Amino acid sequence: xxxxxxxxxxxxxxxxxxxxxxxxxxxxxxxxxxxxxxxxxxxxxxxxxxxxxxxxxxxxxxxxxxxxxxxxxxxxxxxxxxxxxxxxxxxxxxxxxxxxxxxxxxxxxxxxxxxxxxxxxxxxxxxxxxxxxxxxxxxxxxxxxxxxxxxxxxxxxxxxxxxxxxxxxxxxxxxxxxxxxxxxxxxxxxxxxxxxxxxxxxxxxxxxxxxxxxxxxxxxxxxxxxxxxxxxxxxxxxxxxxxxxxxxxxxxxxxxxxxxxxxxxxxxxxxxxxxxxxxxxxxxxxxxxxxxxxxxxxxxxxxxxxxxxxxxxxxxxxxxxxxxxxxxxxxxxxxxxxxxxxxx
Length: 344
Ligand code: PBG
Known about the structure:
The chain is an alpha/beta fold. It has helices spanning about 5-10, 25-30, 70-80, 110-120, 150-170, 180-190, 215-220, 240-250, 265-275, 285-295, 300-315, 325-335, and strands at about 40-50, 55, 65, 85-90, 125-130, 170-175, 200-205, 255-260, 280-285, 320-325. The protein has a single domain (about 35-340), classed as Aldolase class I (TIM Barrel, Alpha-Beta Barrel). Ligand PBG binds next to α7.
């Protein structure tokens, strides 16, 4: 029979001790593999008409619908925090079946882009290129008589939208409608207009996700009937995500975007391994809302969960992260940098 003292001396001792590198905050900071940088963050912003307007969005606490003047203020603050870019979503005063507001020269996004461009901020201006915020039926393209989205008519509308956004000053257009051939249609239209320096960030593998719920409330873009499963990807598919990305690369995408974020970590890893383009990940509205709501109830530590989520996207291979928490993260990163060893 082995007595307790003998057991203590006879058990195997580890020769590998990974805990050595975890002993102090300074050691952990030294060997940390993934560091967040505000310059790699993009803040989505919602713009509506008016002056001096900041309209709270219920399920997205801390995010507001802004009038162009308030959006200028917000962009200036984001620059002060070192955030790399903004992604603009327009909320038009009126909607129609073709989404005419999307490519109107005096459209809300075009007007805002011109104002931001005039400020000459060190901030990348990205325009979401889609029709769903502008169509009265809420789908991402014009409809056929049977109610389905007409892919090739949508391409014409998307190409015109991208051209008008680029003319108004967008550095990057970000087609998110998931129409077949949208990147090629936009690239050829931009080039034909002499806009060959405008970058295309392709929402390459965008799933028909339930995580977009709060966004649709913010943008008033919930489809009036049906859903988006006929054009957005089935969340169950991984190989198809890679096929979508390969098509977008072949069509001339400069950047690939994976969306939503945490539910699609595998797409990010696969994209990183397969393509050499920069990869962006979008932590979408539902992901943000869940963290904000649980933190509000005191069920989780919002700052730590948010930091951990964004770090996971970067660790999986995202070079750029789009998040409604961009300003908060930038502030936290600055605080953590002031103390060696603090942070995630
Ligand atoms: C436009 C678009 C949507 C989102 C980004 N671009 C809405 C949708 O596809 O329904 C969702 C972003 C988010 O949930 O934060 N097509």
